[in-house]
Design brief:
- By secondary structure, the protein is mainly alpha-helical.
- The chain has one domain.
- It contains 2 helices and no strands.
- The protein is rod-shaped.
- The relative contact order is 0.18.
């Protein structure tokens, strides 16, 4: 689609979108692992196991911190895809 749109694959705005997609993916993979771990902790608590609240809060903090660059990066990707700036 890049070529059909008349763009080169290495246009600056496209290279920036590739980098931002990689950043979002690098943040997203640990977030998925964190979500799975927190889910397992909560399920274990529901079965009556001990719950480590400090570990859950620590995981949530990492989840929150990693979410910002992933979300922000994808917002910028959306803008780049719409605006297609010519720097």
């Amino acid at each position: 689609m890049i070529f059909h749109g008349g763009f080169a694959w290495n246009d600056y705005w496209l290279v920036l979108t590739y980098a931002l997609y990689m950043l979002a993916g690098a943040c997203w993979l640990p977030v998925v692992a964190i979500q799975m771990r927190v889910k397992a902790m909560l399920e274990a608590q529901a079965r009556g196991a001990a719950f480590d609240e400090a570990a859950c809060k620590r995981l949530f903090r990492w989840w929150f911190v990693l979410g910002w660059p992933a979300f922000g990066g994808l917002v910028v990707v959306f803008w780049l895809m719409v605006a297609k700036p010519t720097w």
